[in-house]
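Annex B, item 7. Sequence and structure tokens for protein A, then protein B.
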Amino acid sequence: MNGRRIGVAGAGIVGTLLAWRLRLADRNVRVELVDTVSSERGATGASGGLVRGYDPEPRQLYLAASSLAELRASRLLRAWSCYQETGSVYLQADSGHPAALAELERLLPGSVQTRGPGEAPYLATRHAVVERHAGFISPRRLRDEVLADFVRMGGDLVHGQVGGIRAEPDGTVSWQVDGQQRRYDTGVLATGPWTPALLPGDGYRTKLIQYGVYEASGTVPAPFVDEVTGLYGRPGPGNGVLLGVPSDTYDIDPAKLRPDPALVRRTTELATRVFPGLGIAGLRHIVVAADCYTAPQGLRLRPAAEAVPHLFTFTGGSGGAAKTAIAAARQSADSLLHHLAVPA
């Protein structure tokens, strides 16, 4: 594969991890990462950074638990991501599938316990999956450290806006970066909420992400997700707590984001009901961002438009991509290198 080139557009956490994985796996492949000027307005800078192993969807569970296992095993990744192990609680209406819990135990031995109604933390009516080996990271810090290492390893970094994607007659794929053509054997769009504008009509949609950081006078809970209400949260800086609920606002312009007051009210009301002893004393600030969604949900490598062979997307998460990004990037890098090695 000597002389082959892979281009990755989008230097958020997922694009940067993918480019880094590619460079680690094969130094003979030239990898170019395009840091778009819009990267800071994507989901990476706004992510709450919750990392846990459990998820009711089997593929998501495998990626999340594998990511967390690698993170905990790597002194470098723990330091780069500012990982804080606090444990986590996943609240749900039923007890969960035994096969999922067995897989979680296999990937993260000794981490998981289950609690039934009356035993579950926070809400007595819920079942709970309680993980000892879980917590939160700083996705922005991890991205910055991985990006610096990618450049140290000889990866190519360029800056600018991506557009003008097309298939070339020789079978390569190209795009424009601030008016200059860049050509690759394989291209990957890890462009988050800007993907729908680059690939209109391909089933990608933007979605609002919003959470608040609140003052709390009571005991701040460990990172948690309540599957029934959608409420999620984790400890925040100082005596604060990060709280949010999923939005149902799609097809927004990621360059024109505004807080949704209805989401603020719903988050506050749910938190007061779920955590009556939390003592929410006020809202410090609201964080608003956008991400890209498609079906089936989950962060994965996907072939893009048929009109542009050798073009892929690496996006379409269901939210919370930080918890799956490490393993998903490794899987996707392996797939891309296999794709390069197979003659067209």
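Protein B:
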Amino acid sequence: MALIKEIKLSTESYKIFINENIESFFKKNKIGQKYAIITDDKVKKLYAIKLKNELQKNKIEAEIFSFKNGEKQKTINTLETLANQMVEKGFDRKDAIIALGGGVVGDLAGFLASTYMRGIPYIQVPTTLLAMVDSSIGGKTGVDISSGKNLLGTFHQPQAVLINTNYLQTLSQQQIKNGVGEIIKYGVISSKQLFEYLEKNMQNILDLKEENINYIIKKSVIIKAEIVEQDEKESNIRMILNYGHTYGHAIEKISNYKLLHGYAVAIGMVIANKIAVEEKILKQTDSERIKNLIKLAGLPTTTLHKPKLKDLLSDKKKEGNFISFILPTKIGEAVIKKTQCQ
């Protein structure tokens, strides 16, 4: 067990651990009278049943509530179904939620926690690389609607984030690469050191070598946590974390969410780089270097269906008649550029 970072916000704080024994954590920290383990059908079979049994061995009451795996299930209908099931099982405001799964589970379970009986605590237990380095940290919750991704949601910070890299052993290479897409983002916007580490160690990372995986997870978590500390509600600097996402979210939607998030963000980063080169704020050599790292990770750099302006207009990063693009100025730095919709 190791503490990676304590996020200190104006009204609360919480800790992010790596390779914490989850059962021991809940023995030492009573966050709820009983726990609703929110998960999907795949993670239920892999980990949720085992976690429930371990908690019950320690006289900690828990129930599992699951839904079908996939982004297409991240809807208000799924949210209502889970809430009704929790009511039927007698969960109240003294109880808590454990979000056990990837980004979809974390977003949905966090939104459920923020709204169930006007808000109950929750703990993030991410099981994918993407969730470990990104979606489990910072308190963003939400569901998708027909108009776009994460357009209904709240900011609701977890009580803790418990990262266990053993969960990565059951991930496909596709899902590992999905997480690496977000890690490349951190290198481009904030850390040349991380970027160069990825260039030198990509194959070891894809092979889940312990030293390399632990390093990139810790580095990514610290980068995101420090940005969240500065701007919890994404009113300013936190928007920089959306590098690659303005186009990325639109690309996901056009694919009917068949393209994974990290893959779409990879393409979005390449498009953002092209804009930055055209704006003369990024050197072509840096743009090519970023593109080469994306290719090295086995991620896509082009799409047959590049989003049009209308596809971007439903994005959360739109303010009035302006869309915010996050553009790198060099490897390790980026700026927020507001562009008027034509």
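Comment on protein B: The longest strand covers residues 322-330.
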